Queue: 2 jobs
Job 1
Amino acid sequence: MRAAWIERYGPPETVEIRDLPMPEPGEGQVLLRMRACSVNASDVELVTGRPAYARLFGLTRPRFHVLGSDVAGVVEAAGPGASRFAVGDAVFGDVFESFGGFADYAAVPEDRLIAKPDALDFATAAALPQAGVIALQALRDLGAGVRVLINGAGGGMGSFALQIAKARGAHVTAVDRAAKAGFLRALGADRVIDCAAQDFTALGERWDLVLDLFATRGMGAIRGALAPGGRYLLVGGRMRALLSVLTLGTLMSFGPRKLRLLAARQSRDDLAEIAALVAAGRVRAAVDRTYPLEETAQALARVAEGRALGKVVVVMGGNA
Ligand SMILES: NC(=O)c1ccc[n+]([C@@H]2O[C@H](COP(=O)([O-])OP(=O)(O)OC[C@H]3O[C@@H](n4cnc5c(N)ncnc54)[C@H](OP(=O)(O)O)[C@@H]3O)[C@@H](O)[C@H]2O)c1
């Protein structure tokens, strides 16, 4: 079978297509005939080995040679003890602990998967797991009328978060590059800020929730952008910002404002919830482009170079 292979850390063009033996499903795993696998910023980070936390999995060489964790496909076989699905079932899910999705076949834990609703094609289903679930978890308790700022709103997670916040009745300020302004407005943003032209922490304005998907600032600056009782959730970004929230953010959270890291929690229920929202047409999976498996390097490059509007998806075996 074919797979997109990374031998060592480097730019996306170092990813090459190799012929590999068919994976064997182990205990609690199923073998999927892959139909689609979306690209996450985390795939790009694990290809390039940057930022530094991407090397927690492998300091000098990648631990995972075949990336891709947002999988959608058809169950081809079940390993020992795997009984939740039958051969031929269409399923999807987040297999972040094992990866292997950028391939014709992948052996993945069955407890990370749910049945794919008929209303979703495979490419749409593959766009949902990581980005859709974390967006849902970040905005779980949002009330109507709340002022939300989403930094990095035009990326994979941001495109879901923006729509979910709007669906909950929030007033949403979306921050990203100027080229994405039209896209952000089309997703429902009430206001758009060009991150290159304006620093949202220097505007003298306050938000009830700042969801930071591309954190670059220290917690001192962030605190000034939070209304009393406001919350700051950091999902991804530069090392310095991550360290700042872990140290200063923790100290500052003893006051009326709360600043913390948000780590994704694996949840089949949350995945089913975002899938139902998309199937019902209440949230759109913004699929920027699809690429065939042979062009996985180009798919990763599109995300790495910041050209994607929403999600990029690799599809196997023709249209997904
Ligand atoms: N906490 C967790 O559990 C968890 C789990 C998985 C992933 N993550 C992390 O979450 C982050 C977001 O993931 P994603 O898939 O949504 O990434 P993404 O698709 O790359 O989205 C990030 C967005 O931020 C934009 N951006 C770049 N520079 C910016 C700046 N200075 N200010 C504001 N926006 C800027 C990007 O624009 P360009 O594309 O034009 O650069 C892009 O639109 C990643 O760092 C990922 O590693 C966290």
Job 2
Amino acid sequence: MNQVNGNLVDVHAHLADVRLRERLELILAVSEHQGVGGILANAARRTEWSIVCDLSRQPGVFGALGIHPFFPEDWREETLAELRQALTAPENRGRVLAVGEIGLDFQYGRDNAEQQLAMFRAQLQLAQELNLPVCLHNRKSWPDFFGVLKELGLSQVRGYCHHFTGSVDIAREALDRGLYLSFCGPVTYPGAHRLHQAARYVPADRMLTETDCPDLPVQRYRRLESRPWHVQFVVQCLAELRNETPERVASQVWANWQRLFFPDNP
Ligand SMILES: [Zn+2]
């Protein structure tokens, strides 16, 4: 694919992941060189917040803070207040842009469902209160997720479904709520038919790209860790599925990134 000039976007990378620590500088330099103009570094754990905040001071890197549903033990009495403080800190203004990664994951059962639901509700409500977008992780939990929105009286949510893997019906319901759908490595797998359907279905103005770096590699680098610059292969795949040029898909995604995360500078 021809290189797209700095307008590739990775809306979901775990740059604070310990696996990347030694190589982060190189990873960011290569990503920039390969045309990635925007990366949203998502936190999964409480200990990653300060790392994400530091990273978000680098050009083209922005931050999202939250607790991932895998780590309910990180959610303590004081965590909500600490999250509010970090999200509203003057030094993070314009750099820490979202609440994430948050959501529900019942892939391995519902033993901690109540804990997951409690911390998800709290983080979602905080995002609403601060008018920040959310980065959503949902696995085997769509009915619960839509149930929470209903319970909280939220007909619209500003944010995106990271690594969207749902059916077209789920896609429609998420889109009706105002959400964006984000695609990553698995959409490039030849057998990922349901993902391909969703990628064809999503309107151009609600489509995002990501890597979930260092996880979910693209087909071409299936045995390796993913990197933010691999979004170019996601863009290429979306273009093929949607019968568009990669340049067109990249510019649509860039416009969506701007609209969702930088609504104050249109
Ligand atoms: Zn993630």
